[in-house]
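Sorry, can you check?
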Amino acid sequence: MNHRVAIFDTTLRDGEQSPGASMTIDEKVVIAKALEDLGVDIIEAGFPIASEGDFEAVQRVAQSVMRATVAGLARCHPKDIERAWQALAHALRPRIHVFLATSPIHRQYKLNLSKQQVLARVAEGVAMARRLCDDVEFSAEDAARTEPEFLVEVAQVALAAGATTFNVPDTVGYTTPDQFGDLVDRLMQDLPQFQQAVLSVHCHNDLGLAVANSLAAVKAGARQVECTINGIGERAGNCALEEVVMALRTRHDLFGLETGIDSRRIFSTSQLVSRVTGLHVQRNKAIVGQNAFAHEAGIHQHGVLQCQETYEIMKPEDVGVASSQLVLGKHSGRHAFKDWLNKQSFELSDAHFEKTFAAFKALADKKKTIYESDLLALVEGELQSTTGPWRIASLHTSAGTGTPPTAAISLMDERNVVHEEAACGDGPVDALFKAIERATGVRAVLKSYEIRSVTSGRDAQGEVSIEVSHGDQTYRGRSFSTDIIEASGHAMIQVINRLCRKAQNEADHLAEAYHAS
């Protein structure tokens, strides 16, 4: 049996389906390159038939990635498969990923197909994909709720038609480790074809069991795990890449399996995905959370000081977390700061670097102690604040007992024209948001507003996270500052910039379509 588990990352496809986590094409290319550096075997770049933007993203990733396999998703429809191949045609290692639902509930209510009709579509779709591409994966959507004997039939048909990988998704996160392990074991036992073909799993996290189910499947013989950075994805998300990889590595005594992942790049890749999507990592998240290697209890601290292994089963350095939090200070120069940026996978232009370095020095003057989390927050805030047509020139708020809260804002647009507005509100943040809406002309509904401290102490930076709805879409914004009001303003500007970019992209596509016709 092969002792290596392939890592199939679907952050750019399934991960992007998290509400508010949409990415630009350039952002997808940056993440794809980081995933390749991380050592991911297969990068699923998107669903080419879904939109022109998805098609172009898959095409750009396929042209940019040199070592990893690039996959494009397609339904068992000729147009989907043709479109996927058009997007992947220039990839060095292309894979067409075809899927069709197989469970009784999907056959009856979504597809209105009999078992025999499903089998026929599987055969036709896989055969067509194989004529175009040597590497074809077939996924039996909702496999975990499919009758096991029928799933065996589906696998037989898919493999006979030319599939090189057969994927078993727990599409709705319904199964448990024992059940899922037994299902994979049955497929391995009933189908000798898996001596050559790869059996893959794709687990969702609706019951919080995605990683556990994936590991049970691996123990039963699966040799590809589909996952995402930080576990992002539909609903409660997917199997988290960092968790399944470090579980296999840390418990090598139990699994005896390897991956091609360079674990030292896990933390920086996690931060990159969080920065691009606006979905921050929960503090107690395994492997990459802020508290993953933190010890507050006196007993724990004493134990770690005596022997690190008393309370740490992994070294923080193994996943790219610095063992020391205090890394830079007010006396640090440009070279040290640039070296730290490179280690964290930040890519800045010279002009942007100078602006960010100036912000770092200003923060160092404000804070007595600077932690790595302060630096990450600062750089992420600077990156986000400059992406789009609007930026804050100045703001002022006023609030107090017996006086109505007010805010005045001065914004610069992409032509460096100043727009000034003022507003009253229920509080200074509400007033600020209203003033921003007036200045930009963009109306949005605030759905949630969260504040958390990035570090400890009275001079700690605060992180403001907001969720805004516009039409039928949800967008997230996040910013950092020692001034919570200022952070709130930048978070809202970040959301408005995303709305403006989306509107501009749609207008560009319409113009292209018009000229093409």
